[in-house]
What does this fold into?
Amino acid sequence: MLAVHFGAGNIGRGFIGLLLNQSGYHTTFVDVNGEIVDLINEKQEYRVVLADQTKEEVSVTNVSAINSMNDPEKVIDAIVKADIVTTAVGPNILPIIAKSIVAGLRKRVAENKKDLSIIACENLIGGSTLLKNSVYEGLSGEEKGEFDQYFSFPDAAVDRIVPNQTNDDKLMVTVEPYYEWVVDQSMIKGEVPPVKGVTFVDDLTPFIERKLFTVNTGHAIAAYLGYHAGMKTIDEALASNEIKADVEHTLNETGQLLVKKYDFKMDEHKSYINKIINRFLNPYITDEVTRVGRAPLRKLGANDRLVSPAKQFSEVVGGKPTYLAKGIAAALKYDVKEDPEAVEIQELIHENGLKQAIYEITALQEGSKLVDLIIEQYELLGNRK
Ligand SMILES: NC(=O)C1=CN([C@@H]2O[C@H](COP(=O)(O)OP(=O)(O)OC[C@H]3O[C@@H](n4cnc5c(N)ncnc54)[C@H](O)[C@@H]3O)[C@@H](O)[C@H]2O)C=CC1
Ligand SMILES: O=P(O)(O)OC[C@H]1O[C@](O)(CO)[C@@H](O)[C@@H]1O
It folds into this structure.
């Protein structure tokens, strides 16, 4: 079996590539990082090491890689032959890789007409659907009909913390032991791809919201408040009782929302929250606040981990989501010079004023009480230490 995976980065090698290998696939990674591509082709294997006391090491074999900048035709041919296509490139890159995917799928329709699932493993709601929309953009009506017949873009939720890697061995990836990969099987046409470790469900929404609004919300709050307090890493941030309490209060807000919306049991959800906070505290992982807080414009988007639960909290639970608003305010103050999205946010605030910038970034509407709450928290936060 052949898997084509876009993005040979941390999650690509450390999570998706690992499970594909353990499920018996040969994985062809597609990436634009020439050094990583060459190393994968030279070594044909890499190591994944668990970040716990065991430091257990697993070897991932049966791998190759294509540099999509140099060999776009090879990518197309790999898609024609693939039994599954997955991605972990970052949400902003999905429209870029859609171009090679559409070319590969067109050739596949012409040559073998076999069913194929294309699964985006990114931190967002409806990632595969977003990729599908980009793929379908340039198709004729007839082509859309053919693609609908053979190709599925099931949405997925992926959860495993893989920090930036600092190993001498450039292919080795250190990962936390925990993982969860949930795929919406109701969106799959034909056979469900046999990937060990994937949970197939008929309705992904509760799973993706539970994960995004707990793991990713909690992590983002720790990152933005940590950065604001002058800290470099997540463990440093959570060593502050004040920030840890802010994370807990925020997850209590998202927890109230999730419990009410999906009828989760409160005690079970509280255990889930505790498990997540313990994952953030993993002493075998050093995770930079600038990695976890990266791309703040995306993270402040209407459907992402901060604004979406804050909006829904007011509608579903009622009352003020004070701690979510504090996290949003901290994200608006995140001014890392090396992060283009952080720079853009600061420019928007500078040029248009805070209120207009919030409307533009979050798509919240004029008159929203949440905007007033965010501004209140923004002022309370003061200057960065
Ligand atoms: N690192 C983590 O703990 C987790 C990350 N994710 C998600 O996985 C995705 C990837 O994240 P990471 O692996 O951390 O990032 P990363 O930066 O380590 O990996 C991204 C890879 O995509 C490659 N890439 C960029 N443009 C490309 C293109 N046009 N074609 C092919 N490859 C391209 C990069 O060269 C890089 O190797 C993101 O959406 C992230 O939200 C999800 C869960 C956990
Ligand atoms: O990958 P993103 O969406 O930029 O955000 C970083 C988040 O992703 C993770 O890497 C894994 O879910 C978390 O560590 C963090 O919450």
Observations:
- The first strand starts at residue 2 and ends at 6.
